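The authors assume throughout that readers already know how a fold can be written as discrete tokens. What matters is that the chain and its backbone geometry are given together, residue for residue. A single example would do more here than another paragraph of explanation. For illustration, here is how one protein appears when written out as sequence plus structure tokens.
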Amino acid sequence: MAIKTYLDREAKAWLKRKKGPDEILRIVPDRLTDGHIPNYALFTAFDENPEYLGCILFDAKGYWIYDGDILSVTEQEQVAKFIINYTERL
């Protein structure tokens, strides 16, 4: 069973940080893992050499987990909500 998410291509998201300056992340979908269940790699958006910030992994029931050690729980939740609720603006 594949989960329904709205982010199916690379996107940028505003991340509001509790400590430090807010920043924009680049979220890159990776569907190669299972073919149906998406995972999303996270990077800094505008750096010449983007920093890898970890990834958000989803399971078949729609639960997610962050694989990394840079983002706080609140920041992880922001990114997961962005992925789940993504709609393209016209």
